[in-house]
Amino acid sequence: MVFAAILKTMATPTPLSRLFTVLLTGVLAGLVLAVAALPGNLLLGFAAQAALREYAALPDALRTPATPQRSYLYANDGKTLITTFYDVNRTDVALAEIAPVMQQAIVAAEDRRFYDHGGVDLRGMLRALVSNVSSGTEQGGSTLTMQYVRNVLKSDPNRTAEERAAATEQTVGRKLQEIRYAKALEQQLSKDEILNRYLNIAYFGSGAYGIAAASQRYFSKPPAELTLAESALLAGLVQSPEAYNPIDGDADAALNRRAYVLDSMFATGAITAEQAAQAKAEELALDPSDQANGCTATASAADGWGFFCDYLRRWWIAQPEFGDTVEEREQALRRGGYTVVTTLDPQIQATAQQQATDIYGYDNKRAVPIAAVEPGTGRVLAMAVNRHYSVDANPDGQLNYPNTVNPLISGGGSVVGYQAGSTFKLFTMLAALESGRTLSTGFDAPSRLPTRYAAGSDDSACNGQWCPANANPQWMDGYRMMWDGFGRSVNTYFVWLAEQVGQDKVVEMAQRLGITFRAEADANFAENNAANWGAFTLGVAATTPLDLANAYATVAAEGTYCAPVPVVSVTAPDGERLPVGDPSCRQVLDPDVARAATDAARCPVGQQSAFGQCNGGTATSVNRILDGRPVAGKTGSSENAATETFVGFTPQVAVAGIAANPDDPTDLVGSAVQAQVIDAVARIIATAVDGEPVESFTAPSQDLVGTPRRPVER
Question: What is the DSSP string of 614-652?
């Protein structure tokens, strides 16, 4: 409101201040009248030359708007909203996406002569000056263009806080600058473009900036669907967003203001008297919706999405494309207006969450974190755990349940992971195959195997040396090859095999496939003493379901490792797709080596290898649940059944789940839960491949098969 605001800043009226006000107003009014009296062509000539100079000197934000906008996160279908991120609740939309009646309403409410003036309404300004001085009432003289200038300058994220505050200072100098900027903009931009920009930046109250956010906040609909009554209500809010706000303020005041806007629309010819009367008679029919903000605000009906959202946010702030520092990248997510299509598959996620909570409820101190990954792309399809992603307080004595925001599935921060037991035997088998050994490599596995490594505890010692044992000697002991050694999970066979290959080669293989050592002790062992890490093949290092699923996905993809990624695409507000999120893959294994390992991994799940060498498995229910579809995998039990793990994969998906107590590694989950974890992973795989074509694994070459001791079944 142009000079009304200036006058309002005067101190408590005194005779002297009142005299100064009158003199100042008279001078300004005289200037306005003098300019209005200039010959039209002379005025236009001066204005055009000045506008060209002024436009070149405009702040970048006025020439190229950089208003903060909300970023949207969608599931992999591009439609299911996960959440949004914002500091300022705003989303820009094109003018064509805004109902024409809304465009008419804002013009009628704020600037009836918008299409007649050149950025500054001299007639309206003079009228406001005279009224403000003579009657003491406050009338506005700011045009939509001038209001737009003010809104841009006070919200420009590239300006300092002091500069943004200066954009609303009640001074003559600031107002004159606003007028100059408005004139310059009108010389370069069309009325429609100015109107569009204004509607995208105006504040409508209740945290909603711009018409798209306001339409959703008050009526839960896009701005293209706004009715006459709804448009008039929203247009009326701009003058005093908090006073007229029907959600947080005065509903009666909002209705009175709506009536004013409808009368103004009739006065401008935008609507008829009958239309105005009908709209005035409508009740205040709000349908407000809260605008989700951040990972703790994901839909409650989709519990577990918060953990995926958190993983995406952690990924985001590690990407240099979004800024040079973590702070800049975080700001880009909250202010950049990006549309992010993530890799999250709602159906797989729903199944994973259901399976996790079927094993342990939300209030159970034990947890089953689960991750699903797509082989050949690294796309993370699901992340589930029996926890609420929430900062809400927990009952006394309950550290991380039912609420937590710790990354229990992906690891990070204080979460280093969990022992995954015999699932690490895969890395020993791969290292052996890569070294030239074949699937037929045989060893007469004893119940206990004396090794050259120093014993870590009395119960595993043989004359002071580490002496691992088979969990079920009657079923595991005897002559074994890779097929049945893996299928029956024979500890002594794989410890022997790791000794033949070299423990350092096994550790390196795990790292090559993406296993990250987050525990300090594990990282030190891997770096400084890997050759003597005898128990590594039995899965004593901590890992996460995401790392484990992705490692097995590398084998499923015939040796192609892809870094885990949570996004399919990231699109900027201008429609440009950013060069992030594409699969980052490389060949880390000879395809034949991966195929050979997969052939052996058919044994644990109750299926048969291409060479008929499977004769027992630890997870045979998987074959039944998958109804014979080609699948592979491996169970893992850490010492004393402290944790229970299963990883399964097809060519299309790899899924890993680990039952553990994230807060207390000494709390043993017990072997009984293993069957539940196996079935849970299998059912998630079944959901992932439902409706997809059946894909078979490729058999390895004879070079990696060797000569089995038993006849090969063809």
Answer: ----S-THHHHHTTT---EEEEEE-GGGS-EEEEEE-SS
347/250 same-domain check: no
**Are residues 518 and 592 located together in one domain of the fold?**
yes
Do residues 214 and 351 both lie within one domain? no
574 vs 339: CA distance, rounded Å: 10
- Average of pLDDT values for 289-309? 83
* Cβ-based neighbour number of residue 667 at 10 Å: 14
Indicate which CATH number applies to the domain containing 354. 3.40.710.10
22: number of Cβ within 10 Å: 11
Residues 558 and 700 in one domain: yes
Query: β-pairing, 585-587 with 81-85?
Result: unpaired
Q: What pLDDT does residue 129 have?
A: 56
Q: Which of 276, 62, 260 is nearest to 159 (CA)?
A: 62
pLDDT digits (tens, 9 = 90+) for 35-68: 444 454 444 444 455 555 666 667 777 777 667 8
Task: Count the helix, strand and coil residues of the chain and give each as a percent rounded to the nearest 5.
Answer: 45, 10, 40
Total structural domains in the chain? Answer: 2
Cβ-contact 503, 534 below 8 angstroms: yes
The answer to whether position 326 is within a domain reads: yes
Distance CA 482, CA 440 (A): 6
Taking the CA atoms of the chain, what radius of gyration do you get in angstroms? Answer: 34
For residue 205, the enclosing domain spans 90-281
pLDDT tens-place string over residues 532-571: 999 999 999 999 999 999 999 999 999 999 999 999 999 9
Closest to 389 (Cα-Cα) out of 505, 302, 272, 280: 302
Q: What is the pTM of this model?
A: 0.81
Domain membership of residue 290 (yes or no) is: no
Q: From CA 187, how far away is CA 269, in angstroms rounded?
A: 26
